[in-house]
Amino acid sequence: MPVTNFSHPDPYSYQTGFDSSEAIEGALPIGQNSPQKAPYGLYAEKLSGTAFTAPRHENKQTWVYRILPAAAHEKFVVEDADSYHTRMTTETHKLHHIPNQLRWNPFDLDEKVDWVHGLHLVAGSGDPTLKQGLGILLYAAGKDMGKEAFYSADGDFLIVPQHGVLDIQTELGRIILRPSEIAVIPRGVRYRVTLPNGPVRGYICELYQGHYQLPELGPIGSNCLANARDFQAPVAAFDDEEEPTEYRLFSKFNNSLFSARQNHTPFDVVAWHGNYYPFKYDLGRFNTIGSVSFDHPDPSIYTVLTGPSDHVGTAIADFVIFPPRWLVAENTFRPPWYHRNTMSEFMGLICGNYDAKTGGGFRPAGASLHNVMSAHGPDSDAFEGASNAELKPNKVGDGSMAFMFESSLMVGVSEWGLKKCEKVQEEYNDHSWTPLKRHFVNPNKKV
Asked: 307 and which of 9, 195, 317, 407 could share a cystine (Cβ 3.0–4.6 Å)?
């Protein structure tokens, strides 16, 4: 082993490496990644999330030590196109690029399907074959996955539960995911979803290019918003099945679904080390900041994670939340202002109410989309209330959690999202902004 023979013994125990876990002590090789024979007869396998030569601060690689390699499966075959709902653009399914403001009523639960078949593409932009863009999906499921595993070759899943609990068995360990938590499952990581508390529903932002990371803090300093120490990664856990057992492996590949069969469990990683792994985060740990003098800062101050583009400061996907917070700004219209944005904004509501939409219509499990340069802002009820409110310190958002997927890209809406789901509120504009009244008094106009 490539290790120094020190004259003074070390009496202490350490975690090996900065990002590592082993279910059996000694399963990680010491000082090297691919020994001639890995410990305990395991296979060494590398999982690459970036090019080998990506800059060190961007490089994402993990070594896994497993009972059988991931390549040990039969040929993939394409699944029946009517059995899944993630296709982006085909001859019969296209994205609709429209400037209309859109809002959806709460999406339905679906107890008849599992995770794989409960994914629905709502909107998106770009092309996963070029590793460009993003997809916005809704999930609704009521059945456990069986002896199966799923992975997306298209991008990283950022999962936002709205209802129910997900028990996610990944190759690198297990994650329990509940509403008000999020998880990121990187491209290629295989996993199985079971539902310990019954039906589930939620939202996903799939990032086709790059990976999610913490935003830069700039003048904020070294701490605030989502702190690195609060993210949780799974520890190694494996199934030891000595007898051959058939498993089915699903692959989302260019938003189409394929499957292959194998005679062993996909969940046989005994140890791993590296920086490419799934993780989760409790949104309740978000350290919110805001104005303590006047005006409403840009909503970028609520960014939890960002998927940067090649242009510094511009995101393919930002994940933003609007958590419980104090509003104390003086002489200020405190809700978010009226806005036309070069970015597209897809919003969802996990629970409670959103303070900029007090007139109803934006409800938990629903959503809205304000595309590039589509005007939006507080509804008429919120405007009248905030314009005449007593400006004392006021806490908003208790029992509430709204979020936004913001993108620099113009997103198109899928056929399912625009029509087949039958959830689009046709009266959205009439309900929200048509009732706004003229308050302007021209000082130069003679009475």
From this structure: 317
Average pLDDT value over all residues in the chain = 92
Question: What confidence score (pLDDT) does residue 287 get?
Answer: 94
Q: What is the rounded distance in angstroms from the CA atom of residue 17 to the CA atom of residue 37?
A: 21
Q: How far apart are CA 222 and CA 112, in angstroms?
A: 47
Which residue in this structure is represented by tokens 């508390």?
197
Among residues 174, 166, 237, which one has the least CA distance to residue 200? 166
Residue 424 is encoded by which pair of tokens? Answer: 């689009």
- Taking the C-alpha atoms of residue 359 and residue 368, their distance in angstroms, rounded to an integer, is 15
Q: Is residue 339 annotated as involved in ligand binding?
A: yes
List CB contacts of 271: < 8 A, sequence separation 6 or more: 20, 21, 22, 23, 24, 27, 28, 39, 42, 64, 65, 236
**CA angle, 293 then 299 then 302, to 5°:** 95
Provide the CB-side half-sphere exposure for 218 (13 A, CA): 4
273 annotated ligand-binding residue: no
**Residue 376 assigned ligand-binding role:** yes
Cα dist from 78 to 81, 147, 155, 188, whole Å: 8, 19, 19, 18
State yes or no: 57 annotated in a binding site. Answer: no
Helix (H) or strand (E) holding 367: strand 367-370
Residues 298-354 have pLDDT tens digits of 999 999 999 999 999 999 999 999 999 999 999 999 999 999 999 999 999 999 998
Q: What are the tokens at 396?
A: 């908003």
Q: Which two tokens stand for residue 134?
A: 């993003």
pLDDT band (50, 70, 90) for residue 13: very low
Q: In DSSP terms, which residues pair with 66 in a beta bridge?
A: 43, 269
Q: Indicate if the alpha-carbon torsion angle 76, 262, 255, 117 is positive or negative.
A: positive
Task: Supply the residues annotated as catalytic.
Answer: 296
Mention every residue, 6+ apart, whose C-beta is less than 8 A from residue 330.
Answer: 293, 294, 391
Query: Whole-model pTM?
Result: 0.94
